[in-house]
Amino acid sequence: MKASITFDRLRWEEKALKDAASSAGLDMSLVDVKEMSFLVSATRPELGAIVLQRCISHYRSLMTTLAIEGSGTPVINRLAVAETCSNKLAASIALSKAQVPTPRTIVAMSSDAVERAADELGFPLVLKPFSGSWGRMVSVVKDKGMLQSLVEYKEELGNPLEHMYYLQELVKRPPRDIRAIVAGEELVACVHRYAPDGEWRTNVARGGTSKAFKPDSELKELVHKASKAVGGGVLGVDAMESPEGYMVHEVNNTVEFKGAQSAVEVDISERIVRYVAETARR
Amino acid sequence: MNADCAECGADIAVPQDAIVGEIVSCRDCSSEYEVAEISAGSVLLKPAEAAGEDWGE
Predict the structure, then answer these.
(1) Is the bond leading into A77 cis (omega within 30 degrees of zero)?
(2) Which of B19, B21, B57 has its CB closest to that of A252?
(3) A205 to chain B, minimum CA–CA distance in Å?
(4) pLDDT, tens digit, for every residue of A134-155?
(5) For residue A235, what are the CA distances in angstroms to A74, A240, B46?
(6) Chain B contacts of A256, Cβ < 8 Å?
(7) Least CB-packed of A28, A34, A145, A169 within 10 Å?
(8) How many structural domains compose chain A?
(9) Which residues of chain A are within 8 Å of residue B52 when distances are taken between CB atoms?
(10) What residue of B is the nearest CA neighbor of A159?
(11) Which residue in B has a C-alpha nearest to residue A131's C-alpha?
(12) Do the Cβ atoms of A10 and B49 come within 8 Å?
């Protein structure tokens, strides 16, 4: 069986996936999508039976997935999953509909509505962009004055998406969160991510460190439910330990796992590649 | 394999097992390059894309 791993920046993960495929005797090529163009309606047999999408650019990932799926080749993750995960509002709705505990969230459609929304949610709160990763532009807003300043800055930005506001309750959690890596039905790895000194965000991209732990049955069930809620595939489910129990705050579509791999024994790449091959054979 | 940094002229040592698409950095000025081509023990670099606002996981 032939398959492809599409990328636009070759990270540690894509090389590890390629190595895992080679070790498993699977013919998976690394394909740089920056070199690709797509004739609409043409098939792409050279990509093989299935494509594992690994682009670092969100928009390039969405467009490439759309083009490849449109050509008749299945992609992991499916476009619908990528769209849900890459839009925080869509992800919140999907989690909420599936009754996955998730932080209380309000979206305000203009700067006029944002203060009322914040009052409804209560301070301190978390302000996040609708689309974004690595904790970029995620802020803890302590009070109304701070909110006004942030809104003023965002209103000056050219992107209209920045002129709508996604607000979330600040969950009282320990100085760590949970990253669960899922491949289909399998919970491949679970780590706690600890924020570095002087930082509240736990993202590995911001210096967060990972430590393995054994998930209990409640967490396993929740991760499974969250993964299913967004459509399934190869995912990074992020959860928190709140006083009321686990809460899922995000599901990542192109999960990075270098940090998690440094903490666990299981070969994450091997499990992902195996899932890709099994999906292609179905 | 070696290449010159287009920014500062320093020598960039590219690992022997590097593959096309891999990112290498200049130790002197931190400029990032993407391996564009490897042939007969020589390597061709091109400037790597700058991190985009939409980059992530």
Answers:
(1) yes
(2) B57
(3) 9
(4) 989 999 999 999 999 999 999 9
(5) 17, 16, 32
(6) 57
(7) A145
(8) 3
(9) 57
(10) B53
(11) B54
(12) no
B22 with B38: CB under 8 angstroms? Answer: no
Nearest-Cα distance to chain A for B9, in Å, is: 24
Q: Where are the beta strands (DSSP E) in B1-57?
A: 2-4, 11-13, 23-25, 32-39, 42-47
Rounded distance between C-alpha atoms, residue A248 and residue A53, angstroms: 23
Q: What does the pLDDT look like over B11-49, one tens digit per residue?
A: 999 999 999 999 999 999 999 999 999 998 899 999 999
Could you read off the pLDDT of A40-57 as tens digits, one per residue? 989 999 999 999 999 999
Fold classification of B2-47 (topology level) = Rubrerythrin, domain 2 (2.20.28)
Do A33 and A72 sit in the same domain of this protein? yes
Q: Are A126 and A252 within one domain?
A: no
Nearest to A260 by CA among A198, A220, A203, A217: A203
Q: Residue ranges of the alpha helices (H) in A86-216?
A: 88-97, 111-121, 144-156
Q: Kindly list the residues from chain B whose CB atom is less than 8 angstroms away from the CB atom of residue A15.
A: 19, 22
Is B21 in contact with A255 (Cβ distance < 8 A)? no
Specify if A13 maps to a domain: yes
* Nearest chain A CA: its distance from B35 CA (Å): 10
Alpha-carbon gap, residue A279 to A50, rounded angstroms = 8
CATH number, residue A119: 3.30.1490.20
Mean pLDDT value across chain A: 96
ipTM score: 0.89
Considering the domain architecture, whether residues A125 and A137 belong to the same structural domain is answered as yes
Which structural domain, as residue segments, surrounds residue A23?
2-83
End-to-end CA distance of chain A: 12
Residues A59 and A120 in one domain: no
Q: Nearest-CA distance from B10 to chain A in Å?
A: 23
Q: Which two tokens stand for residue A32?
A: 């740089």
Asked if the C-beta of B54 comes within 8 angstroms of chain A's C-beta atoms, the answer is yes
Which of B22, B52, B56 is facing A10, going by the closest CB pair? B22
